[in-house]
From TrEMBL:
Lineage: Eukaryota, Metazoa, Chordata, Craniata, Vertebrata
Assigned protein family: Belongs to the CTL (choline transporter-like) family.
Membrane topology: Multi-pass membrane protein
Name this polypeptide is given: Choline transporter-like protein
Organism: Eulacestoma nigropectus (wattled ploughbill)
One Pfam family in the UniProt entry: Choline_transpo
Entry keywords, A to Z: Antiport, Cell membrane, Glycoprotein, Membrane, Transmembrane, Transmembrane helix, Transport
This protein's GO CC annotations: plasma membrane
Reaction it catalyzes: choline(out) + n H(+)(in) = choline(in) + n H(+)(out)
Subcellular location: Cell membrane
């Protein structure tokens, strides 16, 4: 690495700019326009209510406004016994008429009995009629025709709503399965059947709905608690900003408070785990192992086991020992890092607006995530209602063929297959759009990753430009240009959109490959082929390392772009070789700084997490009445903790970027200049004292 020639005209990251990586910029803009078009197409075709509400045989939602189903929110199956057939798993739809009702039946009755006694017991007829097709009121029609045309169900069974669908109300009596204390029932076709047949039918639907049920409960929890989640994230934002402002004045003191605060919190955690472990001694059932009780969705079950608290205690002790050992061995390095952060604090002191730049990145990423999520949901629920012929006779050749309910009664199907009906099957379609929905979902994910990486790159380049303009000001603060952050943002957008998009594209491709590998791994979990699993594991590990390496290279490339305004490849190459020439310094300073900032993030996320835990478990008396009733309290809790960590990460990244930029500028400064009058150093005296004690001339650098 020969020292770079001195450029007397070089005065920081402002002059002699030109547009870089123009082709990539054009492609990026075209892709964004395509992404907007995809969103519009998905919006036109999709309807998220299809996921949430059940749909009747006429393709209408239960509870859909401005229809006959307005007050009917529960789905009723005419003949639930048909749901036991394997067709359910193929079509994900029960081969029986489905109707929206306002409440489930609460008694046993058969159509034959009700029709026979309708003159003497009109109340029974009127009760049964609400489970018939809307508008049907003809008790004189023969039973055979009614059942053939499925005007009414052949029987009704005491049921209760589950996931907005009527299921038989099962209970066990003396170990025998019963429905409303009966073990048999009449099926309305002259047969007496056992209640276990109903259980098989209900399981047929349950297999399809089980996966949805947990998802729906989580969705409901978010719908109830989103307001409190946002408040939690706002508190995290305020805490992060407070830490950054304090850090500007007392970097050293605050970092030692960070470190001892984390040690203290972990120490308290160890004591609390021991107290719980000791407290559960002698309580029946507390000595069971996690293996004994298996997987439980209710997390509280695990907290009643001594083994759980012992495991927590051992983990926390391990973390505590590691942190203390690192402090002992890295204490001098930490002092150096803190001194560099103080220089960073000074830079931020002169350019205070940088503290609030992460809000711009946060808004950009929030827009990307919202757009991606909405597009994904609309794509997943795309499609018109598809109707299929449902025949009572097994030999009907038209069974399961697509049909149109408007013209169905005029076709031959009703003559050849008496009783056949055209009922709603699923949402989908045969058009080109519906065939390629999976490809669209993949494209949606890819452009989402590209945009998120671009938003992060734009933030890094903007901050790097602002901090570099601070460093390359010979007289600080007099030579710092006006509005450094705004000018830097303008330069990044105007000249370097293509370069930033290029860096983001490389990263997005690697991340998409990682997502696909995770998906394949998930799909092949059941496979016994150990070689395939091993290969996948190796690939996942390689791509994880590649992503980490690319993030490091990109970050430093963006700093070089901000300083010199060259294209992405040249900047990445120059940054890489510059860092390689200063590899020991990079390892020590960069990693120690990252470690200290990571401790700060943990403290913010931990503090807000503890507050959220006490709130959602109703441990704060003042807010006890305000706490929403949740299915799983860990849903908003985990969201708040992860969200708080990400918010803290956003704000602390300003400091990390500041230190990285100053460090790269410092290395450049050492290679370009030698401290003479002709080639003076741009670094401050304090920075020269910290890092330049043994490196006074570029020849030794």
């Amino acid at each position: 690495g020969e020292p770079r020639k001195f450029d007397p005209k070089f005065r920081g990251p402002i002059h002699n700019r030109h547009c870089t990586d123009v082709i990539c910029c054009v492609i990026f803009i075209v892709v964004i326009l395509g992404y907007i078009a995809l969103g519009i197409v998905a919006w036109v075709h999709g309807d998220p209510r299809k996921v949430i509400y059940p749909t009747d045989s006429y393709g209408q939602f239960c509870g859909q406004k401005n229809t006959l189903n307005k007050n009917k929110t529960i789905l009723f199956y005419f003949n639930i016994l048909k749901c036991a057939s394997p067709v359910v798993l193929i079509n994900l739809q029960c081969p029986t008429t489905q109707l929206c009702v306002s409440k489930c039946p609460d008694r046993f009755a058969t159509y034959i009995d009700v029709q026979a006694s309708y003159r003497y017991r009109p109340d029974q007829w009127n009760y049964f009629r609400q489970f018939c097709k809307p508008g049907f009121n003809n008790p004189r029609k023969s039973v055979a025709q009614v059942l053939r045309d499925e005007d009414c169900p052949s029987m009704i069974i005491p049921s209760r709503p589950f996931l907005k669908r009527c299921f038989p109300d099962f209970s066990t009596k003396n170990g025998v399965l019963t429905v409303a204390n009966q073990t048999t029932f009449k099926d309305g076709r002259g047969k007496t059947r056992n209640v276990t047949d109903l259980r098989e039918a209900a399981n047929g639907i349950n297999n399809v709905l089980d996966a949805r049920s947990v998802g729906m409960k989580i969705f409901e929890d978010y719908a109830i608690s989103w307001y409190w989640i946002l408040i939690g994230l706002f508190i995290a934002m305020m805490l992060s900003l407070l830490f950054l402002v304090l850090l500007r004045f007392t970097a050293g003191v605050l970092f030692w408070i960070f470190i001892f605060g984390v040690i203290g919190i972990i120490g308290y955690g160890i004591w609390h785990c021991y107290w719980e472990y000791d407290h559960l001694k002698g309580i029946p059932g507390s000595d069971l192992t996690v293996y004994d009780i298996g997987f439980q969705t209710d997390f509280k079950v695990y907290l009643q086991l001594r083994q759980t608290w012992l495991a927590f205690m051992i983990i926390l002790c391990g973390v505590e020992v590691i942190i203390i050992l690192m402090l002992i061995f890295l204490r001098n390095r930490i002092r150096i890092a803190i001194a560099l952060l103080k220089e960073g604090s000074r830079a931020i002191g002169y350019i205070m607006s940088t503290l609030f730049y992460p809000i711009v990145t946060f808004i950009l990423i929030a827009i990307c995530i919202s757009y991606w999520a909405v597009t994904a949901v609309f794509l997943a629920t795309s499609g018109e209602p598809v109707y299929k012929v449902m025949a009572n006779q097994t030999l009907c050749k038209y069974a399961n063929l697509t049909c149109d309910p408007e013209t169905f009664n005029t076709t031959n199907v009703t003559k050849l297959c008496p009783g056949a009906q055209c009922t709603f099957a699923f949402y989908g379609g045969e058009s080109l759009y519906h065939k390629y929905i999976f490809i669209f979902q993949l494209a949606n994910a890819f452009v989402f990753l590209w945009l998120v990486n671009f938003a992060i790159a734009l933030g890094q380049c903007t901050l790097a430009g602002a901090f570099a303009s601070y460093y390359w000001a010979y007289r600080k603060p007099a030579d710092i240009p006006l509005w450094p952050l705004f000018s830097s943002f303008g330069r990044a957008i105007r000249y370097h959109t293509g370069s930033l998009a290029f860096g983001a594209l490389i990263l997005a491709i690697v991340q998409l490959i990682r997502v696909i590998l995770e998906y394949l791994d998930h799909k092949l979990k059941g496979a016994q082929n150990s070689f395939t699993r091993f290969l996948l594991c190796c690939l996942k590990c390689c791509f994880w390392c590649l992503e980490k390496f690319l993030k490091f290279i990109n970050r430093n490339a963006y700093i070089m772009i901000a300083i010199y305004g060259k294209n992405f490849c040249t900047s990445a190459k120059e940054a890489f070789f510059l860092l390689m020439r200063n590899v020991v310094r990079v390892a020590v300073l960069d990693k120690v700084t990252d470690f200290l900032l990571f401790l700060g993030k943990i403290l913010v996320a931990g503090g807000v997490g503890v507050l959220a835990f006490f709130f959602f478990t109703q441990r704060i008396p003042v807010f006890a009445q305000e706490v929403p009733v949740l299915n799983y309290y860990w849903v908003p809790l985990l969201t708040v903790i992860i969200g708080s960590y990400l918010v803290a990460h956003g704000f602390f990244s300003v400091y990390a970027m500041c230190v990285d930029t100053l460090f790269l500028c410092f290395c450049e400064d050492l290679e370009r200049n030698d401290g003479s009058t002709a080639k003076p150093y741009f670094m401050s005296a304090s920075l020269h004292r910290i890092l330049g004690k043994k490196k006074l001339s570029p020849k030794k650098a």
